[in-house]
Design goal:
Keywords: ATP-binding, DNA damage, DNA repair, DNA-binding, Exonuclease, Helicase, Hydrolase, Nuclease, Nucleotide-binding. This protein is α/β, with parallel strands linked by helices and 1206 residues long. It has 47 helices and 27 strands.
């Protein structure tokens, strides 16, 4: 029964001495049993290290000594000795289970609390309370210790007014209930420790020949300290290793002491050992000839450690100067552009050092305090450079599909089958209809999974496009895949019908399998009932089977570690479900509580790790240094926020509370380390991290952070840099073409072949962009690396000459895309003239933007067209004239038409939500106002609606009257198709006159500039078609009236500026038709029969002057109309020839100069075209302004020249 402290300033050389002693003791005493106790995170490493060191001494020692030497952590020792005891048969609650228990206690004791009444509703309060209770139990502090506590500063106040006292009484009450709830029913880590202590007391004879060595601990909790005292009582001897300077063991109250924490631990143990009358042998100070750091570390690493020790206390100038201006070749400081650059340079550094043949990958260690974020950059950079690595961090289960399955499943009920929730659930792929018939043969399984994914994607597209949600998933009613752009349901193509069927199959799967379960989640049920239903449901729909299939598939692929994760995740879920039933089973079902418990449980749970292989770079946490140092260490991310790191106090106890509690406790009871002590320990943590390096150490930090701000260098690193006169090396993300750079400067960018290729291409690209000569280093490397026969390398090199210019299509490919003869709409031709590349994407590749449940301007326009068409047809059926119809008759007609439209499947969108219902009501009012304008226009004009929605050519599955067919090169033809919104006619004697009206939902003005550039072909083409095929349409030859735009929208009148005009007259002006009218006296007079001299028509762009002459910029003579018609046809033919020639240039108009919509520039296809006006190859078209005179002068000149040439 004796204790000895083994002290030394370097844990590595101290450990070497320790293992030598262990070896000699075991060899000397054949009866001796030895326990080597270390923290969990280094247990495996400690075993392998001891084995290797024993083996180095004696090949046979691994068979003799290690049988009597066992390596444990405290918790593993408890399992080893108590695994067959009754205590291990009791359930152990996870943190989530403990949180459930605390929540129940808070609910039960709510009325008895003062300070904490209602606190359970605060975010994070329960978790903080669980953490505090664990800290109290670890500190051996019981409820009565808290109950009597008072704040001396508040002694004169009554208990009711004393906040600290009330807080302690609340904590005492809750802590007592917590202890009672655990006692005898559950077992926690603290209970195992107490049972382990009891086991040693009851079985002391077993351990009288046992030596216990405790290493790698710098601090013990009160429970751990009690266990150490117990071991000292009942074993032969205990040796406790501490990293400390023997001269400072008594400076346990000096926070500036580098070894403050181990010094405090030393003094606490000495005090408790004395109190228990346990003999303490003389400290074993690692002899100076061994403690010299050079035994493990290089000279430079030794000087680095010595400097940090000395500089933590007072230093003379001479002490400081001895470290300056030395050539420290193996100590480096880097400042990198950002974290990605920091890690990338580390990767190339490691790659380069391994390439020398003097290093292996397991000679390197990377240490950081931000392991989670660092891991992402390490994975990217190290994979790119083909460097094997091991990240010493267990992955959380928070991203496993089971958690997403549970979250989304219960959100289906809570949010009534909201679209996002449905597809979150389906995409977990833990529910697949007919999972039991999945074929696990090679390739078949993945094919079936891909088919299900495609079905889900299709169902989502349909649901998004047509607003299927909520009850649409529940009711037994088929979804209809019919868009507003289709006139009838029978217009559905075979492809559309297939899409509809697939979407309905997914809907039926949800309705048949999922809805019955969510219907059972009713209020009034208990948590136990719902948990049972959930397990049964998951079993029935094949969740367990699907997880097993995933596991089997991964095993077949050799991914054994990943395969185990599915089983671990399922076991975690079952444990959480068991705890939920155990602790809260009889309470009323609470969906939010259950989901939060499962979510928290999965976030806290981690997958088991497989130890690193022999040759990998180790990436580990700065605060968890390993037992065995590495030849080269990178300490990274050393910013002023990471080192020193401020540990905020998240405890329910303030710093003042802690002082008061600590001061009232006996010496064997104490709380965890305070925030102040944690800060005081930062230099020591940095010291231990530095001692991980044997030969070389590189300190790095990123200049910029992810929030676009700048980091500041750690003051610790600044201190080292200044003291050792270290150069701060700047690390760029990419190399530059600076010709002054030496070849050695480029070596930092050399890694694997592909990584190096990437850096080389960046450098060459930079030189090309700046019209500069690349550095000779990169040119030489290019000649060395480039292999023309390697297709991937060719593609990479060709990228240097890449310009954002689409390649013209070969004529045979253009023919495959568009056909030998063209069948086009006029809007397609206008798209081509707006930008040929947009035309290629939309009509060549047939790309479509994903539809969502929104009413687009195009769909609004279709509603206007349908409504106006049906109203016009109804008036014809009733043989009523617009000019004489009454207001009431019109209201009845429009009301019936709107009801008919909105109840159709085509416009089911109107019933999908209150918002859409309101939108369609507004559209209906717009149509009513439009009809009002048509009535008042009819009272002034002889023109009457003759045809509406007249189809020409083949439009979808509808064949209309004959359309224009124009000749193209190589004996090909261009067939035009389209739909004329409205044809107005009037009869003058035997002559019929016809004009066309095109409805627009936004203001559209006829202008000659747009005609010239091919952006306004539609109106002239439609009029040309109607006149050309008038006999087919009207059974008689017709002459043209003109072509007009009619804007369908609500107009507003400024009443202040009306003057003497009537409201009706002012409103009518807002509905004026804009377009071209042919100069024929009878046509002009019929246009507005009420027009008086010196007046402008409120319905057409006409002015009647005092000489009874009609004037206006948009009145065309017969000659002008014929020129325009010919030009229009020529533009169509030109476009057709260019389309079949494969023209797809990216050459758009600048929308600031001409009004045109270009999908590949400002629309949804911008990401594909990547048009950038700053690139020299991407330019807007030059645009010239044209008025009527300029335009027709151009046409006369054009066609007179052509006639002369003919």
């Amino acid at each position: 029964m004796a204790v000895q402290f083994i002290l030394g300033t370097d844990p590595n050389s101290k450990r070497k001495v320790l293992i030598d002693k262990m070896y000699e003791q075991l060899k000397k005493d054949s009866k001796m049993q030895m326990l080597y106790l270390v923290p969990d995170n280094v247990k495996y490493e400690a075993e392998t290290m001891i084995l290797q060191q024993f083996k180095d001494k004696d090949e046979r020692s691994k068979y003799s000594g290690m049988i009597r030497l066992q390596v444990f952590s405290f918790s593993r020792l408890a399992w080893y000795l108590l695994q067959n005891k009754a205590i291990y048969q009791k359930p152990q609650l996870t943190d989530s289970g403990l949180a459930m228990l605390v929540k129940r206690i808070l609910q039960e004791e709510e009325e008895n609390l003062t300070i904490f009444r209602g606190a359970s509703q605060q975010t994070g309060f329960i978790e903080r309370l669980v953490t505090l209770f664990s800290e109290l139990r670890n500190g051996k502090i019981n409820p009565t210790d808290l109950f009597e506590l008072k704040n001396p500063a508040e002694m004169e106040e009554s208990d009711e007014d004393n906040d600290f006292t009330r807080k302690m009484k609340d904590l005492s009450l809750l802590y007592n209930k917590y202890d009672e709830a655990l006692k005898g029913k559950y077992v926690e880590r603290e209970d195992l420790f107490q049972e382990l202590i009891k086991y040693f007391e009851e079985n002391s004879q077993k351990f009288k020949h046992m030596t216990v060595i405790i290493d790698h601990y710098e601090h013990f909790s009160a429970q751990e300290q009690e266990l150490v005292i117990t071991l000292a009582k009942y074993t032969q001897n205990v040796q406790i290793c501490l990293t400390i300077d023997a001269q400072t063991v008594y400076l346990n109250n000096d926070l500036n002491n580098l070894f403050y924490r181990p010094a405090k631990t030393y003094q606490q143990l000495i005090h408790e050992l004395g109190a228990h009358q346990i003999h303490v042998s003389e400290d074993f100070i690692v002899p100076s000839n061994v403690n010299k750091l050079e035994e493990v570390h290089s000279k430079e690493m030794t000087e680095l450690a010595n400097y940090w020790m000395e500089s933590s206390g007072p230093m003379t100038r001479a002490d400081t100067e001895k470290y300056r201006n030395k050539p420290y070749e193996n100590i480096e400081c880097w400042a990198a552009e950002d974290t990605a650059t920091e890690v990338s340079h580390i990767a190339t550094k490691i790659k380069g050092m391994v390439a020398t043949g003097h290093y292996r990958y397991n000679d390197f260690q990377i240490m950081t305090r931000d392991l989670e974020n660092c891991a992402l950059n390490v994975e990217k950079a190290f994979v790119e450079n083909n460097i094997p690595f091991f990240i010493d961090q267990a992955n959380t289960m928070s991203h496993h599909p089971i958690l997403e399955f549970i979250n989304s499943l219960f959100l289906l009920k809570k949010n009534h089958y909201r679209l996002d929730d449905v597809f979150r659930f389906l995409r977990t792929e833990l529910f697949i209809p007919d999972y039991d018939v999945l074929d696990m043969s090679e390739g078949a399984f993945q094919t079936q999974i891909n088919e299900w994914r495609q079905k889900v994607d299709i169902a989502e597209n349909v649901a998004l496009a047509y607003g299927y949600k909520g009850n649409d998933w529940i009711r037994n009613k088929e979804w209809v895949y019919m868009g507003i752009e289709l006139d009838q349901e029978n217009d559905l193509s075979d492809y559309d019908q297939k899409i509809q069927d697939i979407a309905n199959s997914v809907r039926e799967a949800v309705r048949d399998f999922i809805v019955p379960f969510t219907d059972q989640l009713e209020e009034g049920r208990t948590n136990r009932e719902i948990a049972g239903l959930l397990y049964q449901f998951m079993e029935e729909i094949g969740v367990i089977g699907q997880l097993q299939l995933w596991q089997d598939q991964l095993i077949q692929q050799g991914e054994l570690e990943e395969a185990r994760e599915h089983e671990q995740a399922w076991n975690t879920f079952i444990s959480l479900l068991d705890e939920f039933v155990e602790v809260l089973g009889d309470e009323e079902w609470d969906i939010d509580l259950f989901v939060s418990i499962i979510e928290t449980g999965f976030e806290e749970a981690t997958f088991g790790m497989v130890p690193p292989t022999i040759d990998q770079v180790l990436v580990t946490n700065f605060d968890l240094p390993k037992i065995q140092p590495k030849r080269v260490v990178f300490l990274i991310g050393l910013t002023d926020t990471q080192l020193p790191q401020v540990q905020g106090n998240r405890s329910l106890l303030t710093d003042e509370d802690r002082e008061l509690v600590e001061s009232s406790l006996s010496s064997e009871k104490y709380l965890a380390v305070s925030e102040l002590e944690s800060m005081a320990n930062e230099p020591f943590s940095f010291y231990l991290a530095m001692l991980q390096a044997k030969e070389k150490i590189i300190f790095t930090y990123p200049i910029s952070n992810n929030d676009n701000g700048e980091n500041r260098i750690s003051p610790y690193l600044t201190r080292l840099k200044n003291a050792l006169s270290l150069e701060l090396q700047f690390k760029q993300s990419t190399t530059t073409t600076d010709p002054l750079k030496q070849p050695k400067d480029y070596l930092a960018f050399i890694g694997s072949k592909m990584h190096t290729y990437g850096q080389m291409l960046i450098s060459l690209r930079d030189a090309i962009d700046h019209q500069d000569t690349p550095a000779m280093f990169w040119l030489g490397l290019f000649k060395k690396l480039y292999q023309p026969e390697n297709s991937r390398q060719r593609r990479l090199i060709n990228s240097l000459n890449h310009k954002n210019i689409p390649k013209p299509l070969p004529e045979n490919l253009a023919e495959d895309l568009y056909g030998k003869d063209l069948y086009l709409s006029v809007s397609q031709l206008e798209t081509f003239y707006a930008n040929p590349y947009s035309h290629f994407l939309i009509y060549g590749l047939r790309l479509k933007e994903r539809q969502i449940q929104e009413l687009s301007p195009i769909e609004s326009g279709i509603f206007y067209h349908d409504a106006l068409d049906l109203i016009s047809r109804q008036l014809v059926t009733l043989d009523r004239d617009l000019a004489t119809i009454s207001k009431k008759e019109l209201q009845n007609i429009t009301s019936d038409i709107f009801q008919l439209l909105l109840e159709s499947n085509k416009y089911r969108l109107s019933q999908s939500s209150y918002r859409m219902n309101f939108v369609f009501n507004q559209l209906s009012k717009t149509v009513e106002n439009m009809v009002w304008s048509m009535i008042h226009q009819a009272k002034r004009t002889k023109y009457r609606v003759n045809k509406t929605e007249l189809v020409f050519g083949q439009l979808g599955q509808e064949k209309g009257v004959t359309g224009l067919a124009l000749p193209l090169n190589n004996n090909r033809k261009l067939h035009l198709r389209g739909k004329v919104d409205r044809i107005d006619t009037f009869q003058e004697g035997d002559q019929l006159y016809a004009g066309i009206i095109d409805y627009k939902s936004s203001d559209t003005t006829f202008n000659y500039q747009s005609i010239y550039y091919g952006l306004m072909l539609q109106m002239i083409t439609y009029l040309d078609t109607v006149i050309t095929f008038s006999e087919d349409i009207f059974d008689q030859k017709a002459k043209g009236i003109g072509a007009f735009y009619s804007t369908v929208k609500n107009h507003y009148v400024d009443l202040k500026n009306m003057g003497d005009k009537s409201l009706e007259e002012e409103l009518l002006k807002n509905y004026k038709l804009d377009g071209l009218i042919i100069d024929q006296r009878e046509v002009l007079e019929a246009a507005d029969v009420l027009l008086e001299p010196k007046e402008s028509s409120p319905i057409y762009n006409l002015y009647l002057n005092k000489n009874d002459q009609y004037t206006g910029k948009k009145i065309l003579t017969e000659e002008e109309f014929n020129l325009l018609k010919k030009f229009n046809r020529d533009k169509i033919i030109e476009a057709g020839n260019n389309i079949l020639a494969g023209k797809n240039t990216l050459h758009p108009f600048d929308q600031r100069k001409i009004k045109v919509h270009t999908p590949s520039i400002t629309g949804p296809y911008r990401a594909i075209s990547q048009f950038d006006a700053l690139l020299p190859e991407n330019n807007y078209k030059d645009v010239i302004k044209l008025d009527k005179d300029d335009f027709f002068d151009y046409l006369r000149s054009l066609y007179s020249n052509l006639e002369r040439n003919d």
